[in-house]
Write a structure and sequence with these properties.
Structural class: alpha/beta
Number of helices: 10
Radius of gyration: 18 Å
CATH topology of the largest domain: Rossmann fold
Strand order of the largest sheet: 2-1-3-4-5
CATH class of the largest domain: Alpha Beta
Largest sheet: 5 strands, parallel
Distance between the termini: 50 Å
Helix content: 40-55%
Low-confidence stretches: 148-172
Length: 238
């Protein structure tokens, strides 16, 4: 392999259904740049395999006997944050998948995902982005909004009720963001893509990417999926 060729993305398949693992493995085997390095049938086995094989991405089923995908994702996020997790679910509005996102997954896919979408998601996550459209993630969060704090737009209302950044009642680390970063944060929390944010704020996509990276760093969040989770949990968006 020459120096200018990127190494293959190493993928671990975790699902209690052997046929499901076989199906995903066949799809990925035909794709250049992706290598399936192992399989596991439950969360406990997945953790052992991750420690042994150091995959870049784990395709993680949620509902498995023994240790489920949520607990496995939580542990992997703590033990090996460099390994990204994509949750596999049967339904697009699945409370289990929502819990996995909160536990540290970088997105979720339906099990009947098209091959091209599966490959694209794996490559996106390996590159540090989210594995699912923020809009889809927001649909999940909307479903569980009653379980989250009362929402309000950043900057609306008094401190302690969706307080403006910089107020004494601000939530989390929002006050560390610059005014433009706050604008980008708000649009990310609404589920907008970089292109849509650029159009909304009348700036270039390159500028948006720079601000997105800064927002993630300052808030200590893994990716834009977790910006949405963070915003909803802290009542910063409605």
């Amino acid at each position: 392999m020459s120096d200018d060729v990127a190494p293959d993305i190493k993928v671990l398949l975790v699902d209690d259904q052997p046929l499901m693992r076989v199906g995903f493995s066949m799809v990925l085997a035909a794709e250049d740049g992706i290598e399936v390095v192992g399989e596991a049938a439950d969360g406990a086995a997945a953790i052992k395999q991750v420690n042994a094989l150091a995959p870049d991405v784990v395709l993680m089923d949620v509902r498995m006997p023994g240790m489920d995908g949520i607990e496995a994702t939580r542990r992997l996020s703590e033990l090996r944050p460099a390994t990204k997790v994509i949750v596999l679910t049967t339904f697009d509005l699945d409370e289990y998948a929502f819990g996995a996102l909160k536990a540290g997954a970088s997105g979720f896919l339906l099990k009947d995902v098209r091959p091209a979408e599966l490959v694209g998601a794996i490559k996106a996550v390996a590159a540090g982005d989210a594995a699912v459209s923020p809009r889809v993630t927001r649909r999940m969060l909307d479903m569980f909004a009653p379980k989250l704090p009362a929402a309000a737009e950043v900057g609306d209302g008094p401190a302690g009720a969706g307080a403006a950044p910089g107020d004494d009642g601000e939530v989390g680390g929002i006050g560390a963001l610059t005014p433009r970063e706050r604008d980008v944060f708000n649009e990310m929390a609404k589920g907008l893509t970089n292109a849509e944010i650029a159009a909304e704020l009348v700036v270039s996509e390159t500028t948006v990417k720079t601000h997105v990276a800064s927002v993630l760093t300052k808030l200590g969040l893994r990716d834009r999926v977790h910006v949405v989770v963070y915003a909803y949990e802290n009542g910063l968006v409605g």
